Amino acid sequence: MILPVVAYGDPVLKKVGKEITKDYPKLDELLDNMYDTMYNAFGVGLAAPQVGLDIRLFLVDTSPFADDEALTEEEQAYLKDFKQTFINAKILEETGDEWAFNEGCLSIPDVREDVFRKPTIIMEFHDENFEKHTKTFDGLIARVIQHEYDHIDGILFTDKLSSLKKRLIKSRLSNISKGKISVDYRMRFPNQKKKR
Length: 196
Prior knowledge:
Blueprint: E1 5-6, H1 27-40, E2 45-47, E3 57-61, H2 73-80, E4 83-95, E5 99-105, E6 108-117, E7 120-126, E8 132-138, H3 139-152, H4 163-177, E9 187-188
Parallel strand pairs: 1-9
Antiparallel strand pairs: 2-3, 3-4, 4-7, 5-6, 7-8
């Protein structure tokens, strides 16, 4: 089932997510719904706060980046095959020189800005079967993971922008929070009542 994506301005996007256990109610169904929602919106990542849940859960599928002809065949193959569920993730280490990449977010449609992040991360997480992993990620995959990880810590990519950039996009962000935007996927705006 495709869920509405929570728009900028909703308080759930600023909450630090809570860890969950493998007994979390209807976890498999939630994961299926989140993947459906992400693909429907042509996203490469989606975090639980973006569907209104303040829990430490996000998913990533970087296959859309594999079509970038500027990448080597090896990089394209790496991105094409990367799909992962992250539960109760913790970034243990971030290394390397920060690099800029133009980021966007399904909760903040039509706003894209350069964000600086470190290129390599070591992360501990559980997968959808609650098996624990410690893995190193780099490049675009690390960037997508860091973006989604920020969501479970209540951080949006716009929080990482300079004061000047924030002022320049303030009215656009305000319009998003008021629902004054047209998107190709379901969204829930802060002033809308949550349907049970």
